[in-house]
Each structure stands twice: as structure tokens, then as C-alpha cells.
Amino acid sequence: MKRVLVCDGVSPDGLASLEREFQMDHRPNLAREELLAVIPQYEGLIVRSATKADAELIAAGSRLEVIGRAGVGVDNIDINAASNRGIVVVNAPSGNTVAAAEHTLGMMLALARHIPQADASMKQRLWQKSKFLGVELYGKTLGIIGFGRIGAEVARRAQAFGMEILAHDPFAPAERAEAAGVRLVSLDELLGAADFLTLHTPKVGQVLGAAELARVKPGVRIVNCARGGLIDEAALLAALGDGRVAGAALDVFGKEPPADNPLLQLPNVVTTPHLGASTQEAQINVAEAVAEQVGLVLRKEHATTAVNLPPLPPEDLRATAPYLPLADLLGRFFAQAWPGSLSRVDIRYQGEIAGHPTQLLTNNLLKGLLDGVLDEPVNYINASMVAKRRGIKVEETQAHDDGPGSILSVTCYSGGRELGRVAGTLSAQGEMRLCNLEGHRVDIAPSRYMLFCHHIDRPGIIGRTGTILGENDINIAGMQVGRRRSGEAAVMLMQVDNPVPEETARAIAAVDGILAARFIRLTEFFPE
């Protein structure tokens, strides 16, 4: 049974689905040395923000297949190190969306109405009603930097307060913003118009530095419940001091805990200790979401929130997902049918599948081609990188044919010499079929064990091959022969019920007219 280590106090209630399939060890208070010592025992690791899954930890995790972040940001995970090792990194991008949006609005209201300061005053038994004169949200302009899931939810809630919403996000579709009643503008326009400013971008570097804070509308109030480091804290301190920024509400800081950060001492700053996702519901939601993704990876299925792969729209994922096992199988078939060093891999996508993104399919095919041949882990995350490191050139071709169905084919070269060609498709019932070998048309379902022969088409070849298999108690379940003309090169592919020993394959290869005989094992796809 595969094992998963859970750190940082991830909600156990949300991980119940994983508990039924895998051994789960909840150890939220491991010291760094202990973590490095135990991580080699685990295939999965789930963290929040405290545990640093850096290059050292990833190198120590010799069995790791997946790292799950119970939340959105993956700043504490070395994505490059994980990708190079073929470790899938998944997160839970939507589990805390509502919690973060609500906290943003709460911080905005607290900032506008001096709620924390008034509460502290009351607890000192003071009645300072005139001291805490606030401003309304109604009729004000809210500028949102980063119009993703959380930014959009903040916009919806702010509209209920009667605010005008501007957003800056170079990657947000204009139609989506327009449908939400939000106007996309340049950063300069947003800075100059916003009465309230909130940030909802990933940690992509500094967004508000001294230059940007010098261009804001005087009296702006700034909220950051996204990431520490998005704001130059020294420049913000100066802007708060000279009155250009009327106030700030900060849930995150460049260094956490912020310790002696002077922003904590300012009366016009409201702070919370990184509480954006700290609701009971959000903690369960993100745990459930990351558990689902970790489970998919450990079951060798496609994770939909893998951050070290480009995301696929749902319609593209639905179209390509059925072909992922076929791509893997074609790679594994080729590696056994035509063993040898590779210099180039040509992959052709023909038919309907060519109209969709094919990177996942290419990675899966390369995974099948290289896994088990190389002395390093290869999967659909790092397969392209491994091929590149090995000097293997990968070329893709799309042919948008009008006919029904789709065909995946692969041709590999060693130096300038073609090693072989194989193509496959899916039947109307979704079953995998091999449809071309060495340029010869065939139609045969792959099976757990197969024997592939390249031979000269002449009488007696098939009979002698069957005799040798029978003499070794190996039953033939099905067979296809592909040829162009009698007496020329042909191919023969047999489904067999048992493994073909190496000495039996050598005996078949020694038959006059047989050019090569290879035993193909595809047990990953057809378990007993």
C-alpha cells in the first residue's frame, strides 16, 4: 500500500477519501531533520504553507510521486526540482475561494470603518465615538489587481455594496470580465482611479513598489490578502506616513511572522495573521480537493490541478483523456518492438484529436517510450525534459482530417536510420487498437502478452512460428499479418496467453525468412 505523509495540520475530515486507499500518516509537527529522515518512505506528501518542499527535501524523497498543497499558492514548493524528478505538484485552487473573498471584504470594511481600533478603544473602557469617523463603500471605485477566481468573487460581493469595479489582469478574458460587470483597464488607469485597491495575484514578484504607490489616487485604501511580497513594505510605510495612502489592511507579509515590522505599529493599518483561508469550511474544502488530486496521481490517472503542467480547458481534457493510455501503450510497444538508442521521435496526430492541445499525449507517449529503458524516473510531468536532456528531438505533426476517429502514430530514428513505426486508435467502443506497423495496415487489439515478428512474406513462416510456440506450450489467442505484396517484407503480430521466453523468441528469429522477433509485455494496461 502506498503511503502519504501529511504535514502542517491539514484537516483530517477532508482526507477521508485517501484513508480508504492509502496509508496516511498525520505528523504536523515534524522537525526538519525528522522530515528529511522519514520522507524516503512515502509516495505522497501533503503540505500547507509551513513545510518547505525544497530541492533538498525533494531529493531525499526517493519514492515521491506527488506533492499536494492544501491551498492555492505553491511558493513553498520547488516546482523545478519536483518536475525534474517527475514528481507531480498539485494544489487546491478553488477550495478557499469563498473564504479568501469574504476575508478581503471583511478587511475592507474594517479598514473603512476603523472597526479593530474602535473595538480596542472600547475594551479600554473608552467611548471615542468622534475619533473613528469612517467612509462608506457605496459609490466608491474598487480596483482589483488579478481577476482570477478570488478576484472575481471579491468583485461580486463588492457590487452588492454599490461599488464600481475596475480590474487589471493581462490574462483575464475581456468577455468574462464584461459578463461580470467589471471593466478591464491598464494598471496606470486603475491606480489613478481606485478608492480601494485589493491584490489577488500569484507571487509573481512585486506589484506595488514605490513607483506604483506614487501614482495611486490620494487617500486610497489598500488591502492585501493574497501573497506577501506583492507590496514593497518600506514604500507602503512611507506612503502611509505622508498620507498618500489613507490606510492598509494586510493579512500577509514579506516575512511571516512579521515580528518587528513597523507596519504593525501604525494606527491606520489593520492586520491579521494570514487568515484568508482560515475557516472551518475552507480547511475541509481544500483538504478534500487536494486529497482527490493526490489520489488521482497515485492511481496513475491525470491530475486536473497539476501546477507543473499547463492547464487544459474541460472540453480539451474530455477529448484527450481517453487517448492518454493509448499514447502510453504506443510508447511502451515501440520501446520493446524496436529497441535501440533514439535521436528523434516523430509523433503524428490525425483526425479529431489534432484539433486539441496534445502536450499531455506527447508526454504520455514519451513516458511509455523512455520509462523502464532509462535509469531515472520518467512520467508525464518530466518526460519531455528527460528527452531533451538525452538529446532526443521530439517533433509533433497535426493532420486535421475530416473523417471520424483519431489516429496516433510514432516513428523513431537512431541517427539518420528509421527504427520503426506504429500507430493506434480507439474503436467506437473506446477500445485500443493497433492499426499500423512498419507502414502496413493491421487491426488488432493489444493484449497483455504479444509476439511481434518482422519477416519476408513466404509460405511456411507463420506455420513454423506457431509450431515453435506450441512446442513451448504457448497458446496463440489472435493474430494479424500486414503485407503489401507476396514475397516482400511483412509484419506479424500475435496475441499470446503466456510470456514468451527469450530463448523461444531467439528460436523464432532463427527461422529462415524471419528478420526479427520481439516479445512485447503490456501488463501495465492489462492486469490479471
Low-confidence stretches: none
> What structural class do you assign from the helix and strand content?
alpha/beta
In the CATH hierarchy, what is the superfamily of the largest domain?
NAD(P)-binding Rossmann-like Domain
Number of discrete domains: 4
Helix content: 25-40%
The dominant shape is elongated
Compute the separation of the termini in Å: 18 Å
Assign the CATH class of the largest domain: Alpha Beta
- At the fold tier of CATH, the topology name of the largest domain is Rossmann fold
Radius of gyration: 30 Å
Q: Estimate the strand proportion.
A: 15-25%
Say how many strands there are.
22
Strand line-up across the major sheet: 8-7-6-9-10-11-12
Overall mean pLDDT score?
Answer: 92
Brief account:
This protein has helices spanning 16-19, 32-38, 55-60, 79-84, 97-113, 115-123, 149-160, 174-179, 187-193, 210-213, 233-241, 280-298, 314-320, 324-337, 359-370, 383-389, 461-471, 502-509; strands at residues 3-6, 23-26, 44-47, 66-69, 88-91, 141-145, 164-168, 183-184, 196-199, 220-224, 245-250, 269-271, 344-351, 393-399, 406-414, 417-426, 432-437, 440-444, 449-456, 476-483, 489-496, 514-521.
Can you put this structure into words, describing what you see?
The protein has 528 residues and is an alpha/beta fold. The chain has 4 domains: 3-94 and 281-298, NAD(P)-binding Rossmann-like Domain (Rossmann fold), CATH 3.40.50.720; 97-271, NAD(P)-binding Rossmann-like Domain (Rossmann fold); 315-442, 2-Layer Sandwich (60s Ribosomal Protein L30, Chain: A), CATH 3.30.1330.90; 447-528, Alpha-Beta Plaits, CATH 3.30.70. Helices cover 31% and strands 24% of the residues. It contains 18 helices and 22 strands. The protein has a 7-stranded parallel beta sheet, sandwiched between helices. Strands 14-13-15-16-17-18 form a 6-stranded mixed beta sheet, covered by helices on one side. Strands 2-1-3-4-5 form a 5-stranded parallel beta sheet. Helix 7 (149-160) links the parallel strand 6 (141-145) and strand 7 (164-168). Helix 5 (97-113) crosses helix 7 (149-160) and helix 14 runs parallel beside helix 15. The relative contact order is 0.09.
